[in-house]
Amino acid sequence: MLRYALRRVLEMIPTTVGVLLLTFALFNVVGGSPAETVLGKNASDESIAAFNRQYGFDRPLVFARDSQFVRFLSDLARGDFGYSVEYDEPVLDVLARGVGPSLSLTIPILVGSVVVGLALALGAAAFRGRAVDHAVLLASAVLMSVNYVVWVLAGQFFLAYRLGLFPVWGYRNAFYLVLPVLIGIVSSLGTDVRFFRTALLDEIYRPYVLTARAKGLARPVILVRHVLRNALIPIVTYVSLSIPGLFTGSLLLEGFFGIPGLGAVTINAIHSADMAVVRAVVVLGALLYQFVNLATDLLVAALDPRVRLAR
């Protein structure tokens, strides 16, 4: 297992370097002059030169010891993501304020969608081909066909505005998160249930299930103890793809409900051309995907030893 983990860490190094190179090129080369983006195209040459000196954009791009790319890497190594022009404070402080609201929104959505989706998928797999299975599949198809924005607007209009069951806007206490969490769970439930059901049905026709039935084991025991356990590999991989989004926040939900998370911070940074914040969110999201993929591979290898033994 240690040998497999070391190999995966070494394989992650070139990918991470490529991600950092691509991010640097997008924000420092392809995107044009950062000074013109922040100050505007009508800015004077003196103000552009002062801006470039202040933030180091007057240095060589790559091929020098004091180049912008070397400074970019050294700042990342120290945890320095630059300075926010919009908020007039370090980017790390801006992001730190948004992590809590984003996690308080996205973690309940992830846990709720996985728990409810697995419960419905287990019920559909247990009664496959029957009325329960058909009802779950029909409901999943309906949920998948409705656009995400429609769920948000319908929830705000009917449940919050017309019925007054939930607040429409704000982030004062946990009750303000109930409606966006419900919308997040419902909007992702259709895709989750279909995927979980497919993963369970891939295992339910295996010979070991027939053997368990022949031994007289009850259907719930077979589904939970044997089928679900062997179906965890694709399920863990599927769920892990959502984990980086927990930290970068939900752009739509935070924007529509006034939650001051990283999603709202990112939208404000884009509107105000605060490229330091946008670049930090992009870099953190890319690095999180790298580390989550590594953790997922290690978890899958722990669940199935054949993965780490394969060449």
What does this structure look like?
By secondary structure, the protein is mainly α. 76% of the residues lie in helices and 1% in strands. The chain has helices at residues 2-30, 34-39, 45-55, 68-77, 91-126, 131-145, 148-162, 178-204, 207-214, 219-230, 232-240, 243-248, 251-257, 262-271, 275-303, 305-309, and strands at residues 83-84, 89-90. A hairpin with a 4-residue loop joins strand 1 (83-84) and strand 2 (89-90). The longest helix is centred in the middle third of the chain and has 36 residues, at 91-126. It starts with a helix and ends with a helix. 23% of the residues are buried. The model has no long low-confidence stretch (mean pLDDT 85).
Strand/helix succession: HHHHEEHHHHHHHHHHHH
Calculate the terminal CA-CA distance, rounded to whole Å: 13 Å
| Biggest β-sheet description | 2 strands, antiparallel
pLDDT averaged residue by residue: 85
